[in-house]
């Protein structure tokens, strides 16, 4: 394929290179995937105002998210197992994000550890926390994030129990892959991926290996992890984490106005309007459709960010126009990683940057800070 021009091009390339169980893991949503599809489709229902004959020179996408300078209001979302799209994937993505001047968020469930990322980056990155039942483990994770000089903690609130993803169950997803006839066939058809993976020892959950109690090998590690998501997680836990951490805090996975107000009451710096990329409650509304309500509910008390369904820079611009101070991309960077490694993540970010810039100009704006509802022609939400 010639040089990828769109996120869809990167997705096609990743599908060809990454074994089915790991491509599907990145690409799939929960159950019927209706929320996953709505996340993408609802962006196209918002129409932009075309403006002409205004000065479009010297444009700027530079902005701030929770007080941090960003070259554009886009961060890499935390994604578990990114290191199974490409060996050492989280380290590659973190470097690409740093070079692009955007935040990288490391997932608790990453293959590379907090320390791995710190060893290859020079600027602070963000750490995403799943609050697990073993609170001692959470305290240690927070301390490790502090030592690594992470500049924000992103607490995920929408995964007290794991949503069911049919493709993962059918594919027998596990990391590292279990040797069955099915997985052997999947791996045999992706030799470049296999060669790449043979060159790294990082194939388990890097933040958890050596820290979980009663865990001796990778398969008991997976069992431990699955049992550790905490169905009792509550707002008081969020306040406990906020005090323990003491730095910038973002609450991820808010889709309801009451929850948004409760999040603002904790004193957190931002919420991420998110349905986990359609991977948790299938049947929940799209993130973009809920954004205006969230901004109306708490936009004067904290920053409102958004993820879910962003596949172009134009989608980012629409989210910003509806009040998002920042956005996150998950699958778009994973497709880039699977397709072309670090260069693919850089390409995904460049594609989004270029599309955002052109869209902004054609809406008659030169600075992302001037983009608001004045660029919207029609918004059904
Ligand atoms: C995720 N997401 C996620 N979120 C989180 O807080 N911790 C995690 O470990 C993960 N893991 C994860 C893995 C994969 C493969 C995907 C696709 C997503 C959710 C993620 O942070 C984000 O909310 C969505 O990816 C946003 O939707 P898009 O951009 O993928 O459409």
Automatic annotation (TrEMBL):
This is L-lactate dehydrogenase (Cytochrome). GO terms for molecular function: L-lactate dehydrogenase (cytochrome) activity. The lineage of its organism: Bacteria, Pseudomonadati, Pseudomonadota, Alphaproteobacteria, Hyphomicrobiales. Keywords: Flavoprotein, FMN, Oxidoreductase. It comes from the Bacteria. It is an enzyme of class 1 (oxidoreductase). Transmembrane segments: none annotated. It comes from Neorhizobium huautlense. Pfam families: FMN_dh.
């Amino acid at each position: 394929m010639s040089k990828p021009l769109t996120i869809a091009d990167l997705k096609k390339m990743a599908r060809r290179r990454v074994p089915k169980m790991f491509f599907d893991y990145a690409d799939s949503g929960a159950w019927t995937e209706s929320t996953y599809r709505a996340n993408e489709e609802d962006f196209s229902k918002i129409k932009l105002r075309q403006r002409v004959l205004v000065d479009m020179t010297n444009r700027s996408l530079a902005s701030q998210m929770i007080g941090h300078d960003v070259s554009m209001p886009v961060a890499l979302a935390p994604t578990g197992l990114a290191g199974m799209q490409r060996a050492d994937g989280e380290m590659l993505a973190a470097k690409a994000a740093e070079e692009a001047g955007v935040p990288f968020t490391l997932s608790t469930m990453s293959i590379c550890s907090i320390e791995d990322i710190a060893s290859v980056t020079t600027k602070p990155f963000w750490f995403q926390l799943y609050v697990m039942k073993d609170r001692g483990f959470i305290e240690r994770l927070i301390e490790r994030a502090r030592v690594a000089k992470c500049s924000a903690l992103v607490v995920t609130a929408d995964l007290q129990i794991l949503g069911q993803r049919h493709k993962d169950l059918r594919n027998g997803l596990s990391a590292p892959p279990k040797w069955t006839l099915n997985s052997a066939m999947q791996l045999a058809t992706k030799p470049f991926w296999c060669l790449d993976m043979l060159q790294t020892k990082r194939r388990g959950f890097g933040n958890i290996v050596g820290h979980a109690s009663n865990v001796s090998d990778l398969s008991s590690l997976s069992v431990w992890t699955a049992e550790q998501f905490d169905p009792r997680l509550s707002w008081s836990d969020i306040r406990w984490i906020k005090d323990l951490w003491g730095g910038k805090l973002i609450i991820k996975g808010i889709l309801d106005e009451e929850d948004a107000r409760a999040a603002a009451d904790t004193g957190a710096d931002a919420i991420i309007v998110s349905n986990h990329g359609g991977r948790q409650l299938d049947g929940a509304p799209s993130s973009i459709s809920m954004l205006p309500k969230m901004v109306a509910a708490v936009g004067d008390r904290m920053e409102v960010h958004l993820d879910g369904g962003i596949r172009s820079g134009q989608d980012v611009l629409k989210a910003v126009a509806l009040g998002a101070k920042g956005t996150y991309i998950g699958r778009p960077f994973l497709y880039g990683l699977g397709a072309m490694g670090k260069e693919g993540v850089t390409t995904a970010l460049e594609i989004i940057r270029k599309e955002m810039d052109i869209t902004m100009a054609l809406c008659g704006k030169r600075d992302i800070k001037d983009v608001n509802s004045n660029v919207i022609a029609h918004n059904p939400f």
